[in-house]
Design a protein that fits this description.
The chain is an alpha+beta fold and 285 residues long. It is built from 9 helices and 7 strands. Helix 5 crosses helix 6 and helix 6 crosses helix 9.
Length: 285
C-alpha cells in the first residue's frame, strides 16, 4: 500500500495535468451498456463530499472564467458578450429582485427530486453557480425544449411549455452552448447514484433511470454540444476537490455506449454541426 503522502502527490499531479490518474478507468475497458455504467459507478462512487457552505469557495476554482469572473450558464454567452458578470464572494446571494443582482448555488439536477439528500445535494458535478433570479425562475423545472415561451433571461435561457415528443409540461431550456454540459451532468448523476435513483421523483426520471423523452433529449444535447475546454477544466477542478471525475467528459463516447443504443442515436451525428477535434469543441469567452 502506498503511503498517504505518495497518494496525495500522485493525486495532485494528475489534477494539475488535467487528466485522470493512470489506470483510473481500467476496469471499464471493453465494456458497454449496463456493465459499463456499473463499472463507472464503482470507479466514481464514494467521493469526498463537501458541505453546502464549502461550495462557495469551491466555485472559485471550478467555475472561474479566464477573466476571473464567475462562469454562469444562465448569463454567460460563449463567443459573445454576457449581459452582466459576477465577482466571486462580493456578488454572492443574498437577496435579489432581478437578473444581475447576485449568483447562488444552482442544483442543475433539482434537489427536491432526491429529497435534499447528501451527498447529491453538494455534488459539484451538478451544483453550479448561476444568477439567483434565473435560478428561481427555473425552480425545479425539468430541462427541455420550449415551444410556447413564457419568460426569457438576458442570455436566452427560457421557460415555457415543452416542445418535446412525449412530454407536454413546463420546462427550462438553457442556451445551446450549455445544453451538452447539463446533459452530461445528468448522465453522471444517473451513474454515480444509480442505486439511489430508484427512489427519486421527477418527470425526467422513470424507475431509477431517465424517462424515454428525457433520454432522447439529453442524448441529442450531448451530441450537438460536445465537450469543450471549459468543461474539461471544470472536470479537473472538481476532481481536485471531490476525488472523482465525470467519465462522460473524459470519454464522451461512453454516453452512446451506455444509453445510445436504446434511443438509436450514434456517438456523433455526422454533418451540419461544429468541427470536432477529438470530441472536444472549444468556445471563446
Amino acid at each position: 500500500m502506498r503511503s498517504s503522502t505518495t497518494l496525495v502527490l500522485l493525486f495532485a499531479a494528475s489534477a494539475a495535468l488535467g487528466q485522470p490518474p493512470a489506470g483510473y478507468y481500467d476496469t471499464a475497458a471493453g465494456l458497454s451498456g449496463e456493465p459499463l455504467r456499473q463499472a463507472l459507478h464503482d470507479i466514481i462512487d464514494g467521493h469526498n463530499s463537501l458541505s453546502y457552505a464549502q461550495l462557495w469557495s469551491a466555485f472559485q476554482t471550478t467555475d472561474v472564467r479566464p477573466d476571473g469572473k464567475v462562469w454562469d450558464i444562465y448569463s454567460d454567452v460563449p463567443g459573445g458578450t454576457a449581459p452582466y458578470s459576477y465577482t466571486f464572494v462580493n456578488d454572492q446571494c443574498g437577496t435579489y429582485n432581478s437578473e444581475g443582482d447576485c449568483y447562488n448555488r444552482e442544483h442543475t439536477f433539482p434537489s427536491d427530486w432526491f429529497n435534499d439528500a447528501f451527498p447529491m445535494y453538494t455534488d459539484l458535478f451538478q451544483v453550479m453557480p448561476t444568477d439567483g433570479f434565473v435560478n428561481n425562475k427555473r425552480g425545479n423545472l425539468p430541462y427541455g425544449l420550449v415551444g410556447a415561451v413564457d419568460w426569457t433571461s438576458q442570455n436566452g435561457t427560457r421557460t415555457g411549455m415543452a416542445n418535446v415528443q412525449g412530454y407536454s409540461g413546463t420546462v427550462c431550456e438553457p442556451i445551446d452552448a450549455f445544453k451538452g454540459d447539463v446533459a452530461r451532468n445528468y448522465f453522471y448523476m444517473l451513474t454515480r447514484y444509480k442505486d439511489e435513483a430508484v427512489s427519486w421523483n421527477s418527470d425526467m426520471l422513470a424507475n431509477g433511470d431517465l424517462s424515454n423523452w428525457a433520454e432522447y433529449l439529453l442524448l441529442q444535447w450531448h451530441q450537438n454540444d460536445p465537450v469543450d475546454t471549459k468543461e474539461q477544466a471544470r472536470n479537473n477542478a472538481v476532481f481536485a476537490l471531490q476525488g472523482n471525475r465525470n467519465p462522460y467528459i473524459d470519454h464522451p463516447e461512453w454516453v452512446a455506449s451506455v444509453w445510445g443504443a436504446t434511443a438509436s442515436i450514434p456517438d456523433h451525428q455526422p454533418g451540419g454541426g461544429p468541427v470536432l477535434r477529438g470530441d472536444v469543441l472549444s468556445y471563446p469567452l
